[in-house]
Design a protein that fits this description.
alpha/beta, 5-stranded parallel β-sheet
């Protein structure tokens, strides 16, 4: 079973993720840590295949999480789905050319 971490405090994102994971529960197992330290600890020990990081959150520091991923070669395995506030932030992340980004999504 593949592991997914959902690093968001947005109730809508969490609800959508839970609904989607329920549809594919035979294939995926998701965890929902509630702050940056929990997310970093989770990815360090569980090595999830997919990391959903909400860069809009005020309790979860997406930049710090990405720095941890970039710093540790073991964490390069798998991909990141980033959620950003607007098209400008999306462009900034796309310009990084980070190979871990699978998708960068805005809410609109």
């Amino acid at each position: 079973m593949k592991k997914i971490v959902i690093a968001s405090t947005d109730p809508k994102i969490i609800a959508i993720a839970k609904k989607t994971i329920a549809l594919y529960s035979a294939y995926f197992d998701a965890d929902f840590p509630s702050d940056t330290e929990e997310v970093i600890s989770y990815i360090d020990y569980e090595l999830p295949e997919i990391k959903v990081i909400d860069f809009r959150s005020n309790k979860i520091d997406g930049e710090r999480i990405m720095n941890e991923i970039d710093r540790d070669l073991w964490l390069h395995y798998g991909g990141v789905i980033a959620i950003v506030a607007n098209k400008k932030e999306k462009k900034e992340l796309e310009d990084r050319k980070n190979p871990n980004f699978l998708l960068i999504q805005t809410p609109d």
